[in-house]
Amino acid sequence: MLAFIVFFVTQGIREVIVVHLQQQHDKVDRKLIRTLVDVISFISSGAVVLFGIQRLGANLFPLLAGLGVGGLAIALGAQSTLENVIAGLALFFDKPVVAGEKCVFGEHEGIVQSIGLRSIRLEGLDGNLISMPNSAFSQLQLTNKSRAEKILFKHRIHLSYETKSHQLKSALDQFRKLLVDHEHTLEAGLHVRCVGYNEYSIVVELQAYIDTGNREEFLLIQECLLLKVKSVVEEVGTKFAIGV
Q1: Cα 162 from chain centroid?
Q2: Pairing with 90, which of 120, 125, 193, 204 sits 20 to 30 Å away (CA)?
Q3: How far is the C-alpha of 37 from the C-alpha of 7, rounded, in Å?
Q4: Is residue 152 classed as helix, strand or coil in its secondary structure?
Q5: Which residues, in sequence order, are CB contacts of 130 under 8 Å at separation 6+?
Q6: SS (H, E, C) 160-222
Q7: Phi–psi pair at 122, nearest 5 degrees
Q8: How confident is the prediction along the chain (244 residues), in pLDDT tens digits per residue?
Q9: For the stretch 131-166, what's the b/e string if a residue is b when 16 or more beta carbons lie within 10 angstroms of its beta carbon?
Q10: How far is CA 155 from the centre of its chain?
Q11: Which residues does UniProt call coiled coil (predicted)?
Q12: Do residues 155 and 203 touch, judged by C-beta distance below 8 A?
C-alpha cells in the first residue's frame, strides 16, 4: 500500500513540475522531465516493496542477486541506449544549449528544436531536420551562438597599387575613426592595420568586436560598416584592387 502511495505522490509532483515549467515558459523537454520522475517513482516504490518484504522476515539475498545479474545483462545489452540517456541528462542539467538556441556543433550549425532522452533534434541552416544521438552530440565541440555577447567583425580589404602613400595613410586614419566612433564597436581588440602586400594589392585589415550576440543585428551593422568602408575608399581617391 505504501509503495502505491509513494508512486502516486511522485507522479503528482511530476505534473506539478511540468505545469510550473509551462507557466514559466521554460524551454526544457517535458518528456525528459516525465521520464526522469518516472524512473525515480519506480525506484522509490521498489525500495519500499523490498523494505516491506524484509520486515516480513523474508530473505532478500536470492532476490537481490537475481536482480543484480538481470540488471547487468540488461545494462550490457542496452549500453548505447544508456549512454544516450546519461548524455541526455547531462545536457538537461548542464544546459550548454536549450531549445530555440543557435549553435555550432562540430562542422555543422543549426537551431535546437528539442532535447529528448535518447537524441537531440536540430534544424540546420538549410532547413533540414538533424537528429543526433545525445552521446554523439555531447562529444562534439559546441559553440552556443545565442549566448554570445559580442561577434567579431574582421575583414581584409585590398587596395590598388595605384594608391599613393598619403591616400593609404588617409584611408587608414578614416577606417580607424569609423570603427572607434561607431556606437556598437568595442574598444578591446579593435585595430586597423596595413598588414602586407600581395601580387595584386595592398592589404588592409579591419577588426572590431560588435556588442551584440544577435546574428541578424550583427549582419545589419556589418553591412553598414562595409558600405562606409567603400565610401572612404572613394573619398580618398583610390580604388579596390582587381583580380584578388
Answers
A1: 46
A2: 125
A3: 10
A4: strand
A5: 108, 110, 121, 122, 123, 124
A6: CCCCCHHHHHHHHHHHHHHHHHCCCEEEEEEEEEEEEECCCCEEEEEEEEECCCCHHHHHHHH
A7: -135, 150
A8: 544 454 455 555 555 555 555 544 444 555 556 566 666 665 666 565 556 555 656 555 565 555 555 554 455 455 677 788 788 878 877 888 888 888 999 888 999 998 887 889 999 988 899 999 999 998 999 988 888 889 999 999 999 999 999 999 999 999 999 999 999 999 999 999 999 999 899 999 999 999 998 888 999 999 999 999 999 999 999 999 987 6
A9: ebbbbebbeeeeebbeeeebbebeeebebbeebeee
A10: 25
A11: none
A12: no
DSSP bridge partners of 210: 151, 185
- The whole-number pLDDT of residue 41 equals 61
The amino acid that residue 26 corresponds to is D
Residue 69 φ/ψ region, left for φ over 0, alpha for ψ in the -120 to 50 degree band, beta for the rest: alpha
Q: Is the dihedral of CA 134, 118, 70, 47 positive or negative?
A: positive
C-alpha cell at 27: 524551454
Beta strands in 34-141 (DSSP E): 102-105, 108-115, 119-124, 129-133
Give pTM, 2 decimals.
0.56
Among 111, 85, 84, CA closest to 99: 111
The cell 556589418 sits on which residue?
Answer: 222
* Residue 2 one-letter amino acid: L
- Show the domains of the chain with their CATH numbers: 1-93 (1.10.287), 97-144 (2.30.30.60), 151-236 (3.30.70.100)
Q: Which CA distances in Å does 63 have to 36, 42, 50, 185?
A: 25, 17, 9, 68
